[in-house]
Amino acid sequence: MTQRVFGITGWKNSGKTTLTERLVAAFAARRLRVATIKHAHHAFDIDQPGTDSFRHRAAGATETALVSSRRWALMHELRDDEEEPLLSHMLARLSPCDLVLVEGFKNESHPKIECRRLEARDHSPLAGAVPGIIAIAADHEVQGGALPVFRLDDVAAICTFIADHLKLPAR
User: What's the pTM?
Assistant: First the structure.
């Protein structure tokens, strides 16, 4: 199965997470299996101090799996001698699905839509400066040049655009 990957990118506070969340719901409503990858620009922890898994990691485990009847998670600790993994490495670790939505990873070459909001920290256009941007979604009037421009809240149109671009199966 060919992995279909589409990105949502933009500056901080540009609406990336909200758009990603709404696209996941829209594609799931179409009965597609959707996976997501989110790039974080800072240290983060999904575990809590004092839990057994946190204690395993604190003791030096490089990978810790948490497994229950409802979900499982695998946490991998990057040690000082390890580089942040590439998007391709993370994509290879995912289970088969119909679509992978990637939030962030703006410098990777996969196709992506650029989010723009008036509230964003930066307003410098990414289109033309980073690879793979094939459309723009904004909450204000923008000139997209040759790129299609969508309203940031027009999830149905953006969803259809992505589905057409990636030739997603109709269900």
Answer: 0.90
